[in-house]
Amino acid sequence: MPYNRGMASSSIVVLANAEIRDEFISEGVERLRHGASAGDVAEFIACAVEDDPDEHTVGYGGWPNILGEVELDASFMDGATLRAGAVAALKGFRHPISIARQVMLRLPHVLLAGEGAARFAAEIGAERRDMLSPEARAAWQQRIAAIGEDTHQRDTIALTLRALGERRGSDTMNVIVRDAAGHICSAVSTSGIAWKYPGRVGDSPLVGAGNYCDDRYGAAACMGLGEAAMRVGAAVQAVMLMRLGWSLESAGREVARQLSDLLGAPAAEDPTRHAHWVRILLMDAAGHVGAFATRPGLCYKVQRADDPHPLLREAVCPA
Ligand code: GLY
Questions:
Q1: Which atom of ligand 1 is nearest to the CA of 222?
Q2: Which residue, of 6, 117, 167, 242, is most buried by count of CB atoms within 10 Å of its CB?
Q3: Number of domains within the chain
Q4: What pLDDT score does 190 carry?
Q5: Does residue 164 sit within a domain?
Q6: Would you say residue 241 lies in a domain?
Q7: Mind spelling out the 3-state secondary structure of the chain?
Q8: What is the pTM of this model?
Q9: What is the mean pLDDT of each run of 10 residues along the chain (319 residues)?
Q10: Catalytic pick from 160, 172, 190, 272?
Q11: Which residue owns the Cα nearest ligand 1 atom 5?
């Protein structure tokens, strides 16, 4: 099937992780009702979450790395063209998702990392911001004090391994938007795992791992332990199963089972045991949605054109 072919159904839908405020999702749906594109609405919602200081795993206020630096990952994918853009380990800019989208639009590349990503952001005039909020700085200082270390010591590996063993979340922002024309875009943005080793990049900016989108078959976005989503190619695998004719439900269950098998029961000494889960959001080409997780109790939100507000639902846990 050619990439740009529109789908029969024209149903508008926004699918997002449960931590996103209802008003951001509802404003996105309202824009879709007035003809906005899936790409513009996905970027709008992601930017709103990146600005939210109470969301500690995305954008401003995100937990920093072990050195107290906020390093942000984001990706954007256009299901009509399969074009994608991403940034990884980006410091000092307000909206990583917008920069990721501009990578897609302005460069013949998909992913820019670290200094190159910052250079590109500066060159396109992206807004700079100190992304470390006072609350996040205080939490980092407390963590360093709690493990009885100082960050001037040379052994950053040991420091990271000691600091990581605390539940601070990996609650990535996932949004998948289908517009009135049947086009789908997906956006993922995160500060990653708290107290991570500098330069650690998770699944969120990796097309195929934490984000994938193809109008013809559907879209997927992941939250949770990025290393697991990377190792099974979770997002692209789910969409490819739908491409092969699997239902959304079967594809989601299969990928969640693979992730569960991979993760197993975390060893007591595993420094990431607090984050030993993944949840994947799925949308098929017709706009049906679902979410699948490796543990119970993980939720998501969905709002369609006729819904007055987002509905909260629990992800299926097939294990
Ligand atoms: N899923 C987000 C991360 O692992 O960075």
A1: 1
A2: 117
A3: 1
A4: 97
A5: yes
A6: yes
A7: CCCCCCCCCCCCEEEEECCCCHHHHHHHHHHHHCCCCHHHHHHHHHHHHHHCCCCCCCCCCCCCCCCCCCCEEEEEEECCCCEEEEEEEECCECCHHHHHHHHHHHCCCCEEEHHHHHHHHHHCCCCECCCCCHHHHHHHHHHHHHCCCCCCCCCHHHHHHHHHCCCCCCCCEEEEEECCCCCEEEEEEECCCCCCCCCCCCCCCCECCCEEEECCCEEEEEEECHHHHHHHCHHHHHHHHHHCCCCHHHHHHHHHHHHHHHHCCCCCCCCCHHHCCEEEEEEECCCCEEEEECCCCCEEEEEECCCCCCEEEECECCC
A8: 0.94
A9: 41 96 97 97 98 91 95 98 98 98 98 98 98 95 85 80 74 94 97 95 98 98 96 98 98 97 79 81 98 95 96 93
A10: 172
A11: 192
319: in domain? no
185, part of any domain: yes
Residue 82 structural domain: 5-314
Find the 166 Cα to ligand 1 centroid distance in Å. 15
- Give the pLDDT of residue 169: 60
Q: What is the CATH number of the domain that holds 238?
A: 3.60.20.30
**Catalytic residue flag (residue 272):** no
Q: Determine the pLDDT at residue 165.
A: 73
